[in-house]
Amino acid sequence: MSAKRIKNPNQPIKTRVHNMYGGMIKRHEVKYWKTGRRKGLIRVPAIPIPFTEAELFEWTLNLGPVFRCPYCSTLLTPLVFSVDHEIPLGRGGSLDLANLSAVCKLCNALKGALTGEEYRHLRRSLETLHPDAQKSIYQRLKSGGFRWVKPKEIAA
Ligand SMILES: [Zn+2]
Description:
Number of helices: 7
Radius of gyration: 19 Å
Number of strands: 6
Number of domains: 1
Largest sheet: 2 strands, antiparallel
Helix content: 40-55%
Bound molecules: zinc ion
Strand content: 5-15%
Strand order of the largest sheet: 1-2
């Protein structure tokens, strides 16, 4: 068991990349209409991932054993980071590795559909506000705005 670990110290990273890559494929696989007249027809066509799992593994290794979130400087490792699209896919960003960045989980959640540049700008702007105001805005960004409200509460 320990000999195996010495043989391949990158195995945990490999496993994580395998899971990330599987998640990417799943997120962009073909989606069908589930009900109604169009049931069974393609609703969203599949988008092929423009890189291989091996290339994603290489990209992850190139981040280094320890690196910082490009936005908030939190220390990260290849096992602890979130994949972010510098330019969001919904805003014309590509799926290419060149558009990927390794960020902390919190920045990934806060950034939402902002570009990297817009998110940096937002962070700089918030720094000029009172700490309580910063806290309030970050908390609301983190909750995902009003989408966070449960449908039940809207109906009531
Ligand atoms: Zn961050």
